[in-house]
Amino acid sequence: xxxxxxxxxxxxxxxxxxxxxxxxxxxxxxxxxxxxxxxxxxxxxxxxxxxxxxxxxxxxxxxxxxxxxxxxxxxxxxxxxxxxxxxxxxxxxxxxxxxxxxxxxxxxxxxxxxxxxxxxxxxxxxxxxxxxxxxxxxxxxxxxxxxxxxxxxxxxxxxxxxxxxxxxxxxxxxxxxxxxxxxxxxxxxxxxxxxxxxxxxxxxxxxxxxxxxxxxxxxxxxxxxxxxxxxxxxxxxxxxxxxxxxxxxxxxxxxxxxxxxxxxxxxxxxxxxxxxxxxxxxxxxxxxxxxxxxxxxxxxxxxxxxxxxxxxxxxxxxxxxxxxxxxxxxxxxxxxxxxxxxxxxxxxxxxxxxxxxxxxxxxxxxxxxxxxxxxxxxxxxxxxxxxxxxxxxxxxxxxxxxxxxxxxxxxxxxxxxxxxxxxxxxxxxxxxxxxxxxxxxxxxxxxxxxxxxxxxxxxxxxxxxxxxxxxxxxxxxxxxxxxxxxxxxxxxxxxxxx
Length: 498
Prior knowledge:
Blueprint: H1 3-13, H2 21-25, H3 29-34, H4 45-48, H5 53-66, E1 78-79, E2 83-84, H6 104-129, H7 133-145, H8 159-167, H9 175-184, H10 186-191, H11 203-206, H12 213-218, H13 225-234, H14 244-253, E3 257-259, H15 274-279, E4 280-282, E5 292-294, E6 297-299, H16 304-316, H17 318-332, H18 339-351, H19 356-364, H20 380-390, H21 399-409, H22 432-449, H23 456-464, H24 470-477, H25 482-490, H26 493-496
Helix pairs in contact: 5-6, 6-20, 6-21, 9-16, 13-14, 17-18, 18-19, 22-25, 23-25, 24-25
């Protein structure tokens, strides 16, 4: 029995130990982790209760219509400083349907904010209560790898749903399947603008008069955003040898990958992505005709098959294996990934053609992952999650509370600052201001929940096991009150790391 390995399993691979968990898994911590590497048969209830992608997209379009705007106006709402144009201080465009005294930002938040808060709360509820924390950490990793940020207004309603529809069903399957699902999901097509990308020699480009006027405003030409991010962020990685010509070629290959706007009633329930798949449409009239060359390989296929073939080859590329292995080892082992560990994971990825279940198993088998020193500093979301798990779920936080709290700490849920997602190195999260905000929250939480029945030293031992240092335990034991002892535990260096 190894309580130290149990603490590493629960805190480094998982999301933080719950009361009694370390003793329960100490007999076989590695086996406990590997048992979690299995497909999810259905999303947990809080996530299943989220609206469908179709319903969320419809809600955004109805909101636009309610303030007198059209889908062609959506790009004018975007401001990189804050999402909706009005967030920067004053709307960048008019909205004739707004009531007097109501800004675009206020109307947007009132109408679509509750759905966003529901998605944030659902994600945290699942993370705090799950019996499969390693699976949930894998979901978070892959959700960050295929980032869809709510910072773009027309992606805002879908950001929290994308992870359920694309990542959860595939994070122990094959990488190619998740890559394809991501590129075909309405959220990614909208976030990275592929839904408005038109081949320069396509039927639409040669005959713009065929389009209704509002579509002429949107479909203006080739957009390289998704093609660039597939190469740089989703598969090969930067400095892997691809060129600007490859970016342009891939962008042409995936022209016509667009979003169907349905007529009629929308399905309101979730369901793991079926409705998202039905919203994807390949429009041959927007697709760039002819063969395309990518990374020295020519793709003669016509239509949709051309993009699917190219993405399949990118998923199997050796550079993809190495890039993803490096990210995984950085996440689970250290900010500076040990080269030997990266190569072992890359080899598994290559040999299994991207079997993510096999890769997740190989991560558990890395000797470097079981070093007792804590090398990773928890980002805010991981910190809050582990605190709530350590408290046994007795501190429920609502969606708006989580949004405000994590926003203050610099990691507003589903709001990564760019397509490269949240940083996964400690230096991005350690600053005097960031640490002080954790101290403030820990102090407020402790004062709100601590009473005579709270035993902070026991909570700390249950959460950290042998990684709790004698000095920290001594300080907690000598605390003047349960509230002070709990705050000391929540701000202890060993609790800040994993």
